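R.M. (postdoc): so does anyone remember the format we settled on? I'll just put the structure tokens first.
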């Protein structure tokens, strides 16, 4: 089975069209067709319904999709691990919740990089489900998430607590409903708290799963939202945002989970004192 054929299959699925996939891969459409034919022949199943209108996955295609993604990721990781630049001897792979990267994941990685110049880093954005699969398969070494990952060979520790505060682009106190309120989905626990704290029938006209995107929208269009205090702080200081008085706040834990087998190469995972805290408790590891 050819890795290029699998990459072509994923490109066709992503773009929904053989012509667009050919342009994206910088090959002819006939080359795309030949690769797909070879892949389907090797698997003994038709993966795509192909027509002039586009390409859609068959039942077998859906079944193969997740495995194809893992195969390509493993191939890319293998290439990265065997093609280090001069002075680099190892690769560290981190999965990070998109909402934890600004002002937290980025600073953590910069600190690690500064202390370990022999290490190359790769960062993947994902939520807990994918992160758990990637750690279990060995594709990634650690994950920064608002929840712990459990499983054989995995360890976790609480890094800190992340406070979410309501901010607005105009100074004001808490109000029953802001027509320009932007909802940011931080997961089931936040949704439950939010529904209890702000009971009502109103639904936000704008919603995001990523606080970075929501912040960009706020600064362009105005409104209010719950943002991590670490992100909002600098903008509160400059007067671009204002804390909504009386709106309440919500805390979530930030947890680093990792493959215990990776500790030998990356001892910083367990912390400066080898801390493996219980992520189900509120106890924070000592610094």
């Amino acid at each position: 089975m050819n890795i290029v054929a699998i990459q072509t299959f994923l490109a066709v699925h992503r773009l929904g069209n053989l012509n667009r996939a050919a342009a994206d891969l910088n090959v002819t459409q006939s080359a795309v067709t030949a690769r797909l034919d070879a892949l389907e022949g090797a698997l003994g199943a038709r993966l795509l319904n192909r027509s002039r209108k586009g390409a859609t996955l068959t039942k077998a295609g859906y079944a193969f999709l997740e495995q194809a993604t893992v195969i390509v990721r493993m191939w890319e990781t293998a290439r990265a691990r065997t093609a280090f630049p001069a002075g680099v001897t190892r690769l560290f792979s981190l999965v990070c919740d998109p909402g934890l990267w600004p002002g937290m994941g980025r600073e953590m990685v910069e600190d690690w990089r500064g202390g370990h110049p022999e290490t190359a880093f790769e960062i993947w954005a994902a939520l807990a489900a994918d992160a758990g699969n990637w750690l279990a398969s060995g594709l990634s070494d650690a994950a920064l998430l608002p929840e712990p990952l459990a499983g054989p060979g995995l360890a976790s520790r609480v890094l800190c607590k992340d406070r979410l505060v309501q901010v607005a682009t105009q100074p004001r106190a808490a109000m029953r409903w802001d027509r320009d309120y932007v909802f940011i989905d931080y997961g089931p626990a936040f949704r439950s708290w939010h529904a209890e704290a702000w009971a009502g029938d109103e639904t936000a006209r704008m919603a995001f799963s990523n606080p970075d995107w929501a912040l960009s929208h706020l600064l362009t269009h105005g409104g209010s939202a719950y943002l991590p205090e670490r992100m909002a702080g600098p903008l509160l200081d400059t007067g671009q945002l204002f804390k909504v008085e009386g709106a309440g706040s919500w805390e979530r834990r930030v947890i680093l989970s990792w493959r215990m087998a990776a500790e030998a190469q990356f001892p910083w995972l367990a912390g400066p004192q080898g801390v493996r805290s219980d992520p189900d408790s509120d106890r924070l590891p000592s610094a």
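R.M.: ...and that's the designed sequence above, right after the tokens. Also worth knowing: The chain has three domains: 3-81, 90-160+253-270, 162-252. Residues 59-81 form the longest helix (23 residues).
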